[in-house]
């Protein structure tokens, strides 16, 4: 193994120090002055107030955020890293196998249920389809409807259909 390969394998990936939110996960948490405070037309403060407000807001936010990150970021990063390690472990060693057991058992139940439904429902659906297969819906002008009624309620096409005795058990 060459020394270059050893260096590549031992190298720890470092985070992007410029773009620290490459997936825009915290787009909703924008806290720039312009994202938080805005004066509409007709309600402007004096220029010196606006400029100093910007400085106070930005300086206070940056100072507070810096102190909080020094005090809390490392312990919280450790806690969240451990939390996600536990979640990953649980999904790999508990949730995944349990889900597979449920899939196996439910496929058997699905076959039983499907057989029961086919045995009970299929004959009913077949009978209803045979009963309802000769229903005709007339749409059109009143002349067609009058011809239908004059023929005793049975259209010529329907009256000339052969009997379907092969479907009757």
UniProtKB/TrEMBL annotation:
Keyword tags: Cell membrane, Golgi apparatus, Membrane
Primary subcellular site in the record, as a coarse category: membrane
Membrane recorded as keyword: yes
Localization per Swiss-Prot or TrEMBL: Cell membrane; Golgi apparatus membrane; Membrane, Caveola
InterPro entries: Caveolin
GO molecular function: molecular adaptor activity
UniProt superkingdom: Eukaryota
One GO CC term on file: caveola
UniProt topology in membrane: Peripheral membrane protein
Pfam families: Caveolin
Gene Ontology BP terms: caveola assembly
Main function: May act as a scaffolding protein within caveolar membranes. Interacts directly with G-protein alpha subunits and can functionally regulate their activity.
Protein family (similarity comment): Belongs to the caveolin family.
Name of the protein in its database record: Caveolin
């Amino acid at each position: 193994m060459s020394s270059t390969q050893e260096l590549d394998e031992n190298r720890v990936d470092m985070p992007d120090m410029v773009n620290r939110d490459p997936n825009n996960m915290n787009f909703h948490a924008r806290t720039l002055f312009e994202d938080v405070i805005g004066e509409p037309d007709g309600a402007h403060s004096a220029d010196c107030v606006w400029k100093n407000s910007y400085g106070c807001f930005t300086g206070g936010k940056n100072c507070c955020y810096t102190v909080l990150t020094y005090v809390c970021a490392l312990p919280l990063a450790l806690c969240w890293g451990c939390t996600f390690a536990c979640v990953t472990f649980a999904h790999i060693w508990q949730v995944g196998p349990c889900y597979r057991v449920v899939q196996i058992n439910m496929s058997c139940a699905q076959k039983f249920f499907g057989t029961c439904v086919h045995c009970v429902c299929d004959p009913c659906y077949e009978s209803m389809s045979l009963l309802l297969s000769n229903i005709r819906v007339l749409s059109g002008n009143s002349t067609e409807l009058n011809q239908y009624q004059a023929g005793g309620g049975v259209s010529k096409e329907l009256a000339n259909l052969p009997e379907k005795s092969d479907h009757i058990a």
